[in-house]
Each structure stands twice: as structure tokens, then as C-alpha cells.
Design a protein that fits this description.
The protein is built from 15 helices and 14 strands. By secondary structure, the protein is of the alpha/beta class. It has three domains: about 130 residues, Gyrase A, domain 2 (2-Layer Sandwich); about 120 residues, tRNA modification GTPase MnmE domain 2 (Four Helix Bundle (Hemerythrin (Met), subunit A), Up-down Bundle), CATH 1.20.120; about 160 residues, 3-Layer(aba) Sandwich (Rossmann fold). It has an eight-stranded mixed beta sheet. It has a six-stranded mixed beta sheet with strand order 10-11-9-12-13-14, sandwiched between helices. A hairpin with a 2-residue loop joins strand 3 and strand 4. Helix 7 runs antiparallel to helix 13. Bound molecules: the ligand Nc1nc2c(c(=O)[nH]1)N(C=O)[C@@H](CNc1ccc(C(=O)N[C@@H](CCC(=O)O)C(=O)O)cc1)CN2, guanosine-5'-triphosphate and magnesium ion (MG).
Length: about 475
């Protein structure tokens, strides 16, 4: 437990119905008593506030009243206040929540009064960090809190809320339990068995690691790969020569006039970023400047950005103009993009010449490709299906894929898997039991980082730093 008390505004700053200010720590209760007055009473025609300094606040009860400045002269706002006595609180410490009117000034005035009364400003994520350090949640649950707040789609939110209630923690605990068991047996063997007698144990350990533990870990790693797209969304870049209809395609995909379209080549200069959902997958669509040879410095800057987008995208929609042949520049551009992340979109299908199309077809046959008209909307839905099927391979966030780890956890699992791998090889039967035991111990240490059970505060600061203040 900490001996200093922290406070922060827990809700977004700005006009809103209600805002919440949170206080956690040993002085939370005293601060509430000092700043809160219970009711407004008319006494000799003068408004009068009943001091609460002699009252007690019962835990988990809601009290109506007013917050005053530390001078106890000015009323700042009419509020509802809740005291939650530790350890029955989010941080396991004494917590006070004040629900005030939400406005930048009023929230900050209340926070100032609380600071004046002795609390310190909370750092980003400090409440959740306290919940972790005081043992209420593990690191995987703290990560789930961030993931839930930042979830770009429903599936991501479902995964996060699953982990918030200990989804990944429990799966990892089962694996840890098995490893622990094996390691304990090895330790006992070192103590009690003669050399040579421990061979059966080693082969038992080897079998269990090979048949149960490693497959369990691989399954988790695989699930992370399958669901990564739901966490970070899919990055789609629309690229091609000037005037082929890239911006028109963006507008079609997002179903609004997001980018300027014109007859002039070089209309789009900067990256235009929009968000859509394809079969529940959050997709970031970026329209880019047409790539061509130019000496115009501003255009060059745009083209540089286009190339950057192409490079970082998960999928590139390479747009071609269906009314003319593929030119040498476009052919070269195509070779610069990885084949498996390219979809060739032959646009202007409403005005094409079939002869020209056959020529284009020959050049792009090895790609996944489709004819569309951004102008009329022809085959735009098929293009969306193609994006979904070809590249995402139809993965759905259904069923137990919700129990997927995140990238940090996957990396830990990969390390654990690598540390265990030597136990499954041919050579293990000749190894001393001490070495087998050490390997198990090492893998236990590694996998333990998923939950962060030993509470190494500094180790996890990078996780809490991703939070907002007040969380
Ligand atoms: N007003 C408010 N809303 C909120 C939160 C909060 O802190 N305050 N939360 C913050 O993230 C989330 C809810 N999560 C919470 C998790 C645990 C406890 C808590 O007090 N747990 C105690 C007591 C449980 C009980 O009495 O049943 C415990 O686990 O010991 C509170 C909120 C979302 N909504
Ligand atoms: N007939 C027809 N014209 C189209 C189609 N798509 C786009 N165009 C026209 O092609 C011209 C260029 O369209 P844009 O969407 O601005 O092309 P762009 O690739 O974004 O061009 P830059 O931003 O200059 O690189 C406009 O006159 C559009 O109306 C289509 O499917 N059919
Ligand atoms: Mg454009």
C-alpha cells in the first residue's frame, strides 16, 4: 500500500452530463470530509451548509451534497459522492469518487480543492497500477483495461473484456501449474533418487512437454496471429498513377465524399485517411497521391508519403485505369509491392474497351485482381469481399479465439516455447536431471511475466504509461 493519496479527473475533459473525480489512498476519506457538505438549509433567510465533519460516510453509499473550496466559503458544485473503503475498491485502497457536473473549469476546480486538501496528482494509469501492485489484478488484466478502452471494433472489445475477467490469466495459470508440477517432481528426484533412477521421470517430463504444454503454447501463439487484425485493424493503402480513380475509389469504399476528385492528374497530394469496417474488421483506408515522375517539389513530398503508405500497408489496392494499357511505370511499381499483399483494381469499368482489358489481364494475371467502377459502384462489394477473403483468409474472431493473447504475451510465449524445446529432443534422455529442472524453472520464470506475479513495478511501467490520467 502507498502512503500518499492520489487524485485525478477520471472522465474526458469537456462539456458533458456528469464528470467523475477519483481519489485513492489513506487520506481519501479525510479529504472527502473536509470538502463535502451535506445539505443546503434555509436558516434565518441565509443559505447554510451543514458541515459533515462530524458525520461518517458509510462505504459504498451515495451521498448528495456540495463540494467547497478548502477555505470552506465558496461552493464549487453540487455533487454525488461515494466512499469505498479499502480493500473493497478498485485500487484496494480507500477510494472516493465525486460525481460533479462535467465542464473543464468545474472539474479542475474540484481537483484543485482536493490537491489543496493534501492529495497529489495521479500519473497516467496510476489507479490501475495500484490495483496491480495491491494484487487486485494481474498485468494481463491491466493490459485488458487499455485494450478495452482502445478497442477499434466489437471483437476487440469482446477479447479485452474476456481478459479483464482473467481469460488469459487462467489459461496461463493452467500451463504454469503443469510446469510447476513437473519441476517439483524433478526437484524431488534430485533429492531422493539415485543417478540413473531418474530416467523414467525425464522421459515422462519430455512427453508431457511435447504432447501437452508445447501444443498448448503454440495454440495460444496461433490465436494471437489470427486475432491481431482485430486489435490493430487492417491498414489499406490505395495506390497507383495519377488520375486512375484512387480518390473516387476511397469515396466509394467509405460511402461519402472524403477526398477531392477531379479530372486533373495530381489532385491528391496528401494522405487522406478514413475508417471503415469490413465484416467486423476495422479497416484504415488511405488514399494517396498518384505516383509518377515529377520535379514538382510538393508533389514529390506527396509521392514520398504514398510510398511510405504502400510500404506499411497490410493490403495495397493498386488501381489501374481500365481505359488504357498498363504503362512501364505502373509495371515497375507493381514489382515494388509484395505480391501477396496486392490487389489490382482495374477501374473505370463503365467505359472500358474489352480489348484493352484483355491486355491488362495478361499483365496482372498473377495477382488477385478485379474490375470495378468507382463512378457507378460496380463490384465494390465484391472488392470488399476480396479484401476480406484473400488477405484475412476469412478469419473470424469467433469462439475461443477471444481467448487470444496480445503481442507482448505472444512474445513471452515464444520465448517460453523456445526454452522448453530442448526438453523434447532426442538428447534429453542423456541429460542430468538438474539441467532438466533448470530448464523448467527458467520457462516458469518466463511465462510468469504474462501475469507479472512478482510485481516488479519498473518492469511494467511501459504498460501503465499507455493509460490516460484518471485510469
Ligand atoms: N464509477 C466507477 N465506474 C467504473 C469504475 C470505477 O472505478 N468507478 N471502474 C474502474 O475500472 C470500472 C469497474 N471496475 C471496478 C472493478 C472493481 C471495483 C471494486 O471496487 N472492487 C472491489 C469490491 C468488489 C465488491 O464489493 O463486490 C474488490 O474487488 O474487492 C470497482 C470497479 C468501470 N466503471
Ligand atoms: N468513367 C469513370 N471515370 C472515373 C471512374 N473513377 C474515377 N473516374 C474519373 O477519373 C478522374 C480522376 O479521378 P480521381 O479519383 O480524382 O483520381 P485519382 O487517382 O485520385 O487522381 P490523383 O489524386 O490525381 O492521383 C475523375 O474525373 C473521375 O471522375 C470510373 O470508375 N469511371
Ligand atoms: Mg486522388
Amino acid at each position: 500500500m502507498f502512503n500518499h493519496t492520489i487524485a485525478a479527473i477520471a472522465t474526458p475533459l469537456g462539456p458533458g452530463g456528469i464528470g467523475i473525480i477519483r481519489i485513492s489512498g489513506p487520506s481519501a476519506y479525510a479529504i472527502l470530509k473536509r470538502l463535502f457538505v451535506r445539505q443546503l438549509r434555509a436558516k434565518k433567510k441565509r443559505t447554510h451548509f451543514k458541515s459533515s465533519s462530524n458525520d461518517t460516510f458509510r462505504s459504498h453509499m451515495v451521498y448528495h451534497g456540495y463540494i467547497m473550496g478548502v477555505d470552506r466559503e465558496t461552493i464549487i458544485d453540487e455533487v454525488l459522492a461515494i466512499f469505498m473503503q479499502g480493500p473493497k475498491s478498485f485500487t484496494r485502497e480507500d477510494v472516493v469518487e465525486i460525481q460533479s457536473h462535467s465542464g473543464f473549469i468545474v472539474l479542475n476546480r474540484i481537483l484543485s480543492a482536493i490537491i489543496d486538501a493534501g492529495a497529489g496528482l495521479a500519473m497516467p494509469g496510476e489507479f490501475t497500477k495500484r490495483a496491480f501492485l495491491n494484487g487486485r489484478i494481474d498485468i494481463s488484466q491491466a493490459e485488458a483495461v487499455i485494450d478495452l478502452i482502445n478497442a477499434p471494433c466489437e471483437t476487440a472489445a469482446q477479447m479485452a473484456s474476456h481478459h479483464l475477467t482473467g481469460g488469459i490469466r487462467d489459461i496461463v495459470q493452467t500451463l504454469t501449474f503443469k510446469l510447476n508440477n513437473l519441476q517439483a517432481k524433478c526437484e524431488a528426484a534430485i533429492e531422493f533418487l539415485e543417478t540413473g533412477e531418474d530416467r523414467t521421470l525425464i522421459s515422462d517430463v519430455s512427453r508431457e512437454v511435447r504432447n501437452e504444454i508445447l501444443p498448448g503454447i503454440s495454440k495460444l501463439i496461433q490465436r494471437q496471429k489470427e486475432t491481431a487484425i482485430f486489435r490493430k485493424g487492417l491498414h489499406l493503402a490505395i495506390a497507383g498513377s495519377p488520375n486512375v480513380g484512387k480518390s473516387s475509389l476511397l469515396n466509394r469504399l467509405v460511402e461519402r465524399e472524403a477526398a477531392i476528385v477531379s479530372d486533373f492528374p495530381g489532385t491528391t497530394r496528401d494522405v487522406v485517411r478514413e475508417y471503415i469496417s469490413i465484416n467486423g474488421i476495422p479497416v484504415v483506408v488511405c488514399d494517396t497521391a498518384g505516383i509518377h515522375e515529377t520535379s514538382d517539389p510538393v508533389e514529390c513530398m506527396g509521392i514520398e508519403k504514398s510510398r511510405n503508405q504502400i510500404h506499411h500497408a497490410d493490403i495495397v489496392l493498386m488501381v489501374l485505369d481500365g481505359t488504357r494499357d498498363v504503362n512501364a511505370f505502373e509495371e515497375k511499381l507493381l514489382t515494388e509491392i509484395k505480391e501477396d499483399k496486392t490487389i489490382v483494381v482495374v477501374n473505370k469499368d463503365d467505359v472500358v474497351d474489352e480489348g484493352v482489358i484483355r491486355g491488362i489481364e495478361k499483365r496482372v494475371a498473377k495477382y488477385s485482381w478485379i474490375r470495378v467502377s468507382a463512378k457507378t459502384g460496380t463490384r465494390i462489394d465484391q472488392l470488399k469481399s476480396l479484401i476480406f477473403k484473400d488477405i484475412v483468409h476469412g478469419q473470424q474472431g469467433a469462439g475461443d479465439t477471444w481467448a487470444a493473447p496480445n503481442l507482448r504475451q505472444r512474445k513471452i510465449l515464444e520465448k517460453t516455447s523456445a526454452a522448453l524445446a530442448p526438453l523434447t529432443g532426442q538428447g534429453v534422455s542423456g541429460q542430468p536431471i538438474e539441467l532438466v529442472s533448470e530448464r523448467l524453472k527458467h520457462s516458469l520464470q518466463l511465462i510468469g511475466e504474462i501475469s507479472g506475479v512478482d510485481g516488479r513495478e519498473d518492469l511494467y511501467d511501459h504498460i501503465f504509461n499507455q493509460f490516460c490520467v484518471g485510469k
